[in-house]
Amino acid sequence: MKTAQGIPVLMYHHVSPNPGLVTVSPETFRLQMAWLARHNYRSIGADDLAAFLAGTPLPEKSVMITFDDGYLDNYLYAHPILQAFGFKAVLFIITGWLGEGEPREPVHHHSRKVGAGDTAYNAALTPSHRTCMEKIAAGQTDEVMLRWSEVAEMHKAGSLEFHSHTHTHQRWDRLVSDPQARRIKLAEDLAASRAALEAHLGTVSPHLCWPQGYFDADYQTVAHSAGFTHLYTVNKETCTAKTPITAIPRVVVKDRADGWFGRRLWLYRHPMLTHAYLALRGS
């Protein structure tokens, strides 16, 4: 068996028919997952990546699929597509934004294109990223974010696993000037996130994704004290056995169904080429 030298960690946010920032359409996401399946890729979870970073070999065509925040469209669209191809993904959820209530109905459209008949349903439940942010700011998070019942369904199905993206998604470095007070706020935020995950899923992992990718030495110290060891960023690179577990890089996925996706996967599987490419681009 050929083993992986580099593992691409893909970063998604929305899978929605309503275009916008950090959004991939359901059809594009389906085509990307189909490409992975056709080329014999294996999706890995957080424990697999942790083992790889600790020196355990993984198959050459391993990829980690991650989502940030926990939008409702992840359940309505990404979840059934992942199930259709037998893949699993990692979702970093903002625990304070998730609500209660019955699960809403996923759109089982993985074998067809999204049609005009879906328009009203999509517009109501999967708005653009900007509209999502406006609704969250207005206290209407349940209209655009996941419910814990939906998290439980995806967790049971095995299509997604869930980890912390903090409880509030706040950038405490921008809100609190005093370093000690800022550390206390972050510690409370992380403790609330862990408590929510424990209460709803019965477990909490040592994997944490930083809001907006921001972190500093103080943030890392507080995270370690809270029990988080594997910290995910928005840094551009591929994961190798030498990647620090305190700064795990990821690859932003674009809404492109052409050869771009395959080229990115191939590039980020080869660490030397990835490094040279990013150096050339000044990234």
CATH fold label: TIM Barrel
User: Segments where pLDDT lies below 50 for 5+ residues?
Assistant: 109-121
**What's the count of strands?**
10
Through-space gap between termini: 33 Å
Number of helices: 11
What gyration radius follows from the Cα positions, in whole Å? 18 Å
Name of the CATH first level: Alpha Beta
Secondary structure class reads: alpha/beta
Mean pLDDT: 92
Portion in strands:
5-15%
Number of domains: 1
Q: Architecture, according to CATH? A: Alpha-Beta Barrel
CATH superfamily: Glycoside hydrolase/deacetylase
Query: How helix-rich are the residues, as a percent range?
Result: 40-55%
Taken from the alpha-carbon principal axes, the silhouette is: globular
SSE order in H/E notation? EEEHEHEHEHHHEHHEHEEHH
What labels describe this entry?
283 residues, alpha/beta, TIM Barrel, six-stranded parallel beta sheet, two-stranded parallel ribbon, 11 helices, globular
Task: Tell me what the structure shows.
With 283 residues, this protein is an alpha/beta fold. It has a single domain (9-281), classed as TIM Barrel (Alpha-Beta Barrel), CATH 3.20.20.370. 41% of the residues lie in helices and 13% in strands. The protein has eleven helices and ten strands. Strand 5 (62-69), helix 3 and strand 6 form a beta-alpha-beta unit. Helix 1 (26-38) packs parallel to helix 3 and helix 8 (179-201) crosses helix 9 (217-225). The radius of gyration is 18 Å and the shape is globular. Mean pLDDT is 92; it is low at 109-121.
